Amino acid sequence: MTEAAVARDFDRWLSGRSLSGRGYSLLASVPGMMLINTPVFRLDRELVLKPEQRLLDVGCGRGSLLQVLASRVPFQTPPLGVDIAASLLRRARRDARRGSSPPIELAQGAATRLPIAGDSVDIVTCAYLVKHLDDAGLACFLRELLRVLKPGAFAVLWEFAPTVSARLDAWHRWLLTRGVESCNLRGYAALAAAATAAGFDWVDNAHLRPFIFPPIPRISVVLGKTPESWREQTGPGRARRAAMASRQAGESP
Fold first, then answer.
1. Which pLDDT score, from 0 to 100, does residue 3 have?
2. Which residue in 75, 98, 124, 204 is deepest, having the highest Cβ count within 10 Å?
3. What is the pLDDT of residue 100?
4. What is the DSSP letter of 214?
5. What is the SS3 assignment for 159-175?
6. What is the pLDDT of the chain when averaged over all its residues?
7. In 10 A of CB 52, how many CB atoms?
8. pTM for the predicted model, two decimal places
9. How far lies 240's CA from each of 82, 232, 247, in Å?
């Protein structure tokens, strides 16, 4: 399922009058964050966010995560939220106008084609987006993250995770597809492997918790883009130089 198709599903779902659509819209609001994204309320301390940093939230929805973080960190540049669904961005802009929190920026765009310049972001957050991406889309998204992050910057992603029970996973997928059909549940190993294949040098478990609602397991990962100096000293650059030096030594008389 393409991102455009997911956006159409969201727009159709949220423009209707279904109870599930209304419930999702409520959970995507700032009050709803207490239930579905509880770790966000201490994320500024755990990530040691600084005013001079540029923050990007991919799949920002109603912009609630950005509103919470902007109210806690006096960012010099308003944090930016990107989402492909027009219906969610309309709600985000309405919330931003009504709220008293510091300003945030919002832009429509796909996660696999971020409207952001390369090497321009210090921290990326992304919640509950990757389940909507197939394997090709996930690989493209991760490459985009690597592109927009500054050297030495990092991204934190969290998502619903699979369990050891196929029957329970089927139930969770049913719950998570009330308005949007796509739902790919991946564990830490799958996300870490995809991030490494995309070019990230540093991948680790973010250990975000607790998540209160819904009662479905989560997985969280932190992905780092190492500075060029580190890559040259300890990363692939060093390995290439060592291999070249070895070949040259072998060729010497």
1. 85
2. 124
3. 63
4. S
5. EECCCCCHHHHHHHHHH
6. 88
7. 9
8. 0.88
9. 37, 9, 11
CATH number of 3-251: 3.40.50.150
End-to-end CA separation in angstroms for the chain:
59
Place of tokens 């969290």: 158
The Cβ-side half-sphere exposure at 143, using a 13 Å CA radius, reads 10
Residue at 126: amino acid letter: C
Q: Is residue 131 within 8 Å of residue 176, measured between CB atoms?
A: yes
Distant-in-sequence contacts of 16-22, Cβ < 8 A, 24+ apart = 18/178, 18/179, 20/178, 20/179, 21/179
Question: Which is nearest to 37 in space by CA: 26, 49, 27?
Answer: 27
Quickly list DSSP for 68-130: HHHHHS--SS--EEEES-HHHHHHHHHHHHH--SPP-EEEE-BTTB-SS-TT-EEEEEEES-G
Domain-wise residue ranges, the chain: 3-251
8 A C-beta contact, residue 224 and residue 200: yes
Closest CA to 145 of 167, 99, 113, 187: 113
| Length of the chain counted residue by residue | 253
- The predicted pLDDT at position 99 comes to 65
